[in-house]
Amino acid sequence: MRQDNFKMVAKTLHGFEDLLEDELKRLGAQDIRKGTRNVSFRGDKGFMYKANLCLRTAIKILKPIRYFKIRNEQDLYDQVYNMHWDKYLSHNDTFMIDATVASDQFTHSQFIALKTKDAIADKFRNTEGRRPNVDLKFPTLRIHVHIQNNDCTISLDSSGGSLHKRGYKTATNIAPINEVLAAGLVMMSGWDGQCDLLDPMCGSGTIAIEAAMIACNIPANINRREFGFEKWQDWDVDLFEKIEESCLRKVREFHHNIYGYDKAPSAVQKAKDNVKNANLDDYIKIRRANFFETQKENDEKLHILFNPPYGERLHIEMEEFYAEIGDTLKQGYANTNAWFITSNLEALKFVGLRPSRKIKVFNGKLESRLVKYEMYAGSKKAKFQNKENDN
């Protein structure tokens, strides 16, 4: 194993571990190990840059720098105090601490973050007479503390802000779908860019944009303004630019169309703005339309994926709304694979169609299902009879 390789941990959403593991394999990561809401792997500095640029289902890429066991808060303070923080920070810099805690003994993540901050500040004050300040918005260095029972890991956050903030979204609707969630749903639905895709309730356009980026193999975070590692002491801008150029050379053409409908004029405008920000106008067409008044425009295969409004967001008659989804698909969308995500599991009964797949996912804290309905050209029975005749 190369000496300049180090361990990293990519954090993800619950249920997306397999997707992230596959992405890391394709990207060329080494020693990949799947955890709960995370996948660890090894790579060098250039690979860390590439992982941040390209991974669609990662929320953060952490670089662990110290492991130790603790029995109490004083142990945590002492261990953090004894680290060589001058390798990562100067007294002129700023920092912030994120903490996640899964332990019977240590229960307050904010207190753990405070104790860690005190240890770092005290170390600088005692050795240099001055200390770096805390900056919760734009710190030079984000430090991540993870405590599992009595095991503590101190990591540097190479991403900075969450990687779902891709950089193309300046306008959102009431409850926009998270970009990482949208990308994961597109991947889970098996869409491969080999047919048209429609998001019939597109909101701010996130699903359509993520689908276009997947179809064209555009790096997920190419539009992002900044990563955490750009403020690190070992930041190598030449290496980053080489990695970026190499990733952009793998972009491919896409020979189908992606459509987004929404009946709200404000949503249509926001989606158009976001598509333009992502430089994807050539591939995505957004228009104002009420899905329930539409039908397929040709006989070609179509892939539908959408995030219908929940009762929490908009006041809708659930039974009627979900029945209309089923009716519209049945009457107007033959030869279509239709997928949508919902946290209203009761409402699925009213669609009036039997889903061929149900995948458990989480939208924020809401347990949801990604469901698939296969709409055949002609009746299902006729389809299978034709298959038998062909054999």
TrEMBL record:
Residues 47-158 form the THUMP domain. The keyword ATP-binding does not apply. GO terms for molecular function: RNA binding; rRNA (guanine-N2-)-methyltransferase activity; rRNA (guanine-N7-)-methyltransferase activity. Keywords: Methyltransferase, RNA-binding, Transferase. InterPro entries: RlmKL-like_Mtase, RlmKL-like_Mtase_CS, RlmL_1st, SAM-dependent_MTases_sf, THUMP_dom. The keyword Ion transport does not apply. This is Putative N6-adenine-specific DNA methylase. It comes from Kordia algicida OT-1.
